[in-house]
Amino acid sequence: MYEEIIHDLMESGYGCVDNWLSAEQTEHLRKHLLERYHEDAFKRAGIGNKFNLTLADEVRKDTIFWLDRNSMTDTEHFFFDKLSHFIGYLNRTCFTGIADYEFHYAVYEKGAFYKKHVDRFNNDDKRRFSLVYYLTENWKDGDGGELCIYGQNQSIIQPKGGRFVFFESTLEHEVLLSNTQRLSLTGWLKLR
Known about the structure:
This protein is of the alpha+beta class. It has helices spanning 2-12, 23-38, 74-94; strands spanning 14-18, 43-44, 63-66, 100-108, 114-117, 127-134, 147-150, 154-157, 163-168, 172-175, 182-190.
């Protein structure tokens, strides 16, 4: 699976595989996301970082919950253990130098979007790769919330539950208008 992701990244600018985790593990992550969401633990997402964070509804309308390894469920720990294994593989085979990561849950309600952007900050170049793990249940055509990647060719990726998407954080992309609730675990692999 790792080789498939890396090969696709080199060929098309992004890697995409389904069933990164089992259906049961994906369902557990969805459940934990929704529990926190219904507890009002999510906050409106902004643009920029801690040095220049602003809220801009014309750019993005999702809500997020940052994950902390000190207060995670067993399934969340399993996800990050698998991610750490993937990072080790990337560092050994591609010499990426990844030393850290940060992740949050994201909820896009009906009418939410995130306009075209890159994930690496102008004032902080530590983000090397972006990763999205979709938790949306029963996504179908017309539900919206697709990931549009602007690389060598424009690609549209459906946010189906269990789908893992991986790309460089300097690649332009956007989340298209969501017509139903769209759920994900989103994050960045970082240099120190």
